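A note from the maintainers: we've had questions about how concatenated examples are separated. There is no special marker in the raw files; a new sequence line simply starts the next protein. For clarity in this README we add a label.
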Amino acid sequence: MHKLELEKRLFKEGYRYIAGVDEVGRGPLAGPVVSACVLVDNKFLKNIDNLPELNDSKKTSLKNREKIFSIIQENAVSVGIGVCGVKTIDKINILQASLLSSKKAVLNLSHKADIVLIDGKFRIPNLDIEQESIIQGDAKIAIIALASIIAKVYRDKLMTKLDTIYPGYDFAKNKGYGTLYHREQIEKLGACKIHRRSFAPFKDTKNNY
């Protein structure tokens, strides 16, 4: 349950635009990591309680995620998306790629945030905006939960599209996570271009595409 204490306090302190940032896709064996940044003002925040089952994306049903996604897109001051693909993940590691995708999401906003609230314990490097990192922020802070939902809906749709380009792994269903079927198909087909070669299962596999 998001009680909005932090957001309300920040607006009372004079912040005009507050951004929440979260990423999706650190754990999968395939596909990009996606971050979303949702920028809100006090007017939007007053309507947050009307959003259905507002929670982090993993605890919200698909139906409600889609509904909340549309409401955010229509009413937030701005929404930014940041994506880092598998080449970047393999080059700089998944943590750094997650932070980079978060930075891209913040910089893709149409308005500059006065403060950025980030899920987790790490701050975004080289970002010239005030930041506060919050462990389990997607379960505590409303606008981080909003960002979590945007990121998940965006990435899920992307993985469904990639399933048509790289068939055989069931990306539309598993979204790149290491399900039993996915791992069995890797053994059968080998790795494709969107598998993360720096992750253990793929270090010795060959590219079939």
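[label: protein 2]
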Amino acid sequence: MNPIPTFLDMSPEAGLIKALATSRPHIISLIRDSGLKGRGGAGFPTGSKWNFAAATQAKKKFIACNADEGEPGTFKDRVILQFHPDLVFEGMTIAGRAVGSDKGILFLRGEYTYLRQPLEETLRLRREKGLLGRNILGSGMDFEIQIVLGAGAYICGEETALIECLEGFRGEPRNRPPFPVNTGYLDQPTVVNNVETLAYAACILQRSAEWFREQGTESSSGMKLFSVSGDCQSPGVYELPLGITITELLERVGGEGARAVQIGGASGQCVPASEFSRHLAFEDISTGGSVIVFGPHRDMLDVLKNFLEFFVDESCGQCTPCRLGNSKLLEGVQLLKSGSCSMAYLQELCALGETMQIASKCGLGQSSPNAFLSVVKHYRAELMGRLSPP
């Protein structure tokens, strides 16, 4: 993997210097004016999240960087942490300045153990340069960052499950409200941002909100990192403006002729070739960055079986719709593959998937049936030939 072009032009400290020289409300206004939205997939406005935490009265506040990159097909945060860790730590420090926090925590995916030592070395060098610790650059601001290693659970990518894990409990989603910006880690206001979000926040402080808005669309400003894998000539991490079409992306990666593209990982949606003119943007197809290309030889039932086996294995089991629903959807796919599923039962499975989208406790459970429902919708004619005789 190669470094990210935009990040190569950035200083490891220029954004922080600007942040220390301006007021906290101005920092938040700058992030809000840039239109930066969460790059983890949810797309919540970053400036609003910071503002909510800043407005909450508390003795202690926390900045948590979500580096638990567990979504299948996603690997762009790993590239950022490997090549541009300074920008991530700078973004965390800027967020701390904005909301009034003196403590940051980077929650690192358990499988990324090999990154911990170089990340700790980056932190050590930042402390030596006065960019971290007490009285940063003589400003009077204190901010420290700790790295916490996850245990490999997919559910900990959900922000409240991440907080539960930080507190030493089993990673399970919390009921909301209250939200982390009001009641998060140790019941204190906590801003949880994705690795990519924090890196771009540091870039915005260095350049400007206007610079960031030069790319993307009115509702989806800026560049976005895409993890591209599957049946294409040039898989990898691509930095592209939000708003590009799937066709344009496939042309860049050598994926012409694909029959489908899974956008957003296993919990995303399967987009057929007939809809490749759609845009990768928050107002059309929102994504955390995973793009899996499926060539014309792929059996979509095999794709579904793979995804659903993952969800059955990774469900935290806390709520019934997710715990049992994914198992039933997997059974349905296996019946379809063997030609033993009736039309009536397929309709029942679709109704189950729609119920899961509403009744599951967290976003991960709510999105787990997405692939099943989108494949049934877009490849219905193909599936009809796999049903059992009436």
